[in-house]
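Weekly modeling sync, notes
Attendees: AB, CL, MP (scribe)

Item 1: holo prediction request
CL wants a bound-state model with zinc ion before deciding which constructs to order. AB pointed out that an apo prediction alone won't tell us much about the pocket. Agreed to run with the ligand included and paste results into these notes for async review.

Input as submitted:
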Amino acid sequence: MSGFSRILQAGKASCRYRRYAGCSRFNCMSDSTTRRLFLGGTLLVLGGCATQSATSLTRVPGPIWTPPLKPALPPTPTPLPATAGVIARSVWAKGRPNPARMDRMTPIHRITIHHDGMSPFTDSSMSAAKQRLESIRRSHLQRRPQPFGDIGYHYAIDPGGRIWSGRPTSWQGAHVRAQNQGNLGIVVLGNYDQQSLNAAQKNALVRFLGQQMKTYNIRSNKVTTHQEMAATACPGTNLQAFMVGARKGRLA
Ligand SMILES: [Zn+2]
């Protein structure tokens, strides 16, 4: 078979395979075989597809397939009910999550604790926490090469012991590289290499972790810190020590 005949034959085979769905130029070009041929002879492939498509429509009348105008985004999941005592994301965030840059959450089976690792943060006002959260969200949206679709953590704890909603739990977080599936991310605002947890933060962290462990049926050995999952200093020496003690004590 000559090179020309082989290309024409392969183009027809590609169209025949997709005939039942209504062969189109778009479909043919998405076929891997034809994509390879595309490099060698764009006009031949498109012509072959159009010819076969016309024949198919004559033989088998059916509904005409209309190509979508733009690629479909993943559907936005139904928001889960707000967790009691948690401040809504809408109170602080100055932008919506971008679903195109996030994956749906899979069943939650693990919790990971972080600090934000920026400058020490001891201001217990709501306004200070809002600013801190928004600055983290913006820095996550500016990540390169892959900007996040929202703040990477699901919850945050401020120096006043308040719990804030971050990324909705219907979306997978972005807080432990390659280990975000089913992993709830909680950040304690501040730098725990350079500061200690105050009593309000300790109580809030233990109480909230207890609630989440009960909600998702997670045992304390699945409540880990970032440095127990990956090579990082997060969540800082002092928060790390607190978590090691909490797992043996109040969270055991
Ligand atoms: Zn971390």
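Recorded for review: The chain has two domains: 3-59, 86-248.
Action items: CL to compare against the apo run; MP to circulate these notes.
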